[in-house]
């Protein structure tokens, strides 16, 4: 006989099973790893089964845990939905959109007024979260359950596009391009004329932690420049800082072209060289296969696809050097 439902222990198990880490589960639930370990041990004793193989390089689910986890996650989703209904929540005219902070700040937010003008009946809520960036290449990092858990209607994510249980469409491909102030093309003792001239300029780095991030080493190799220290220069933890430094003529930054599209259009930044390195990752728009907010989701998906249609690599190529 199982007895009273060990809800806290089940929550701890689901988080640990999803992350395959007691430490990450503890961080998510705002408790200590020791507390997670104790909850799991208590649950194993109550159920009479082992749930994890504890190995030196991490955790692995037992066959019992693998078979029970999907039903447990489905139960939590239904519980969350039921609680929302008890609260009398209504989302008929709301849309919750999640995006990575860099994409939200530099690409999405500057365009939102056009969506608001086209759909004044929809209240749109934007959440900028680093959880929306692929860090490990593991598609399970954004399970369909996360949409229900965080009340996400639409997510825009830079990644591989493999998100089980979700409706995924590629929004834009991406490439690494150098970006600088137009002043660097003409001013100073060493104006930028060819990639080799980068040895006379400061390299600016966007070190935002996400999978597939552009890196100077790869770009310099593609441009045929082999004797420049690709790590030198100034490093930033957010793309907005790196782009602002570039616009201020402090150096040349390597970034994803779409993140600088407004600065390119205004002429604050230019792409000084034609060499671009295509990235394995791309921007995708993601929603649940069975979204309960389908009308608003479809309206946003159609709008953002139309916005992205003019922001592909072809458009960026026309912006090279001239900023036109």
The structural class is alpha/beta
Biggest sheet character: 8 strands, mixed
Range of helix content = 25-40%
Basic shape? globular
Provide the number of structural domains. 3
| CATH H-level superfamily title of the largest domain | Periplasmic binding protein-like II
What fraction of the residues are assigned to beta strands by DSSP?
A: 15-25%
Q: Number of helix segments? A: 12
Q: Distance between the terminal alpha carbons, to the nearest Å? A: 72 Å
Tell me the CATH topology of the largest domain.
Answer: D-Maltodextrin-Binding Protein, domain 2
**Which CATH first-tier class of the largest domain would you pick?**
Alpha Beta
Q: What's the Cα radius of gyration?
A: 23 Å
CATH architecture of the largest domain: 3-Layer(aba) Sandwich
Element order: H for helix, E for strand: HHHEEHEHHEHEEEHEHEHEHH
Mean pLDDT: 85
Low-confidence segments: none
> What order do the strands of the largest sheet run in, or round the barrel if closed?
4-3-5-10-6-9-7-8
Explain what this protein looks like in three dimensions:
With 324 residues, this protein is α/β, with parallel strands linked by helices. It has three domains: 7-86, Arc Repressor Mutant, subunit A (Orthogonal Bundle), CATH 1.10.10; 94-172 and 281-313, D-Maltodextrin-Binding Protein, domain 2 (3-Layer(aba) Sandwich); 174-280 and 315-319, D-Maltodextrin-Binding Protein, domain 2 (3-Layer(aba) Sandwich), CATH 3.40.190. Helix content is 39%, strand content 20%. It is built from twelve helices and ten strands. Strands 4-3-5-10-6-9-7-8 form an eight-stranded mixed sheet, sandwiched between helices. A hairpin with a 2-residue loop joins strand 1 (52-55) and strand 2. The longest helix is centred in the N-terminal third of the chain and has 24 residues, at 63-86. The radius of gyration is 23 Å and the shape is globular. The N and C termini lie far apart (72 Å). The mean pLDDT is 85.
